[in-house]
Amino acid sequence: MEFELARQVLEAQPFSALLDARLASFGDGIAVLEVPVNDRLRQQFGLIHGGVLAYLADNSLTYAAALGLGPNVLTSGFSIDYVSAGRDGAVVRSTAELVHSSRRKATTRCRIEMVDDEGTVKLCAVAQGTVLATEPTS
Fold this sequence. Notes:
It is globular, with a radius of gyration of 14 Å. It has helices at 3-11, 14-18, 50-69, and strands spanning 22-27, 30-36, 73-82, 91-101, 105-115, 121-133. By secondary structure, the chain is of the alpha+beta class. The longest helix is centred in the middle third of the chain and has 20 residues, at 50-69. The chain contains three helices and six strands; from the N terminus they run ααββαββββ. It starts with a helix and ends in a 5-residue tail after the last strand. Helix content is 25%, strand content 42%. The chain has a six-stranded antiparallel β-sheet with strand order 1-2-4-5-6-3.
């Protein structure tokens, strides 16, 4: 799958559009998704809501898997560990990598980080997932 097709798929997802998600990088076994930070993404303590981090994990893990399986994929499952609170930053970024891919199944993992205007990065969560092809790849 190429970058332009991956970007079009992301733009066609209404929930991704709601979050203003963007595909920052896609290729060489790595997929990077970003969501710009705004106050609508925060919970009652001012932290980025865990659901936003889980969205980034789910989508970026699936994009990384598509690098091995092709564009017709669905998340089978993932686990996420929240390692520190995300409060300050201009963007929340998830960098996912394809760990292993067979004909029908891929294993992926990602790091979710807050990035401020100066480029300082703070790890917020890590996740690992399994993604399945919805049709066999050649």
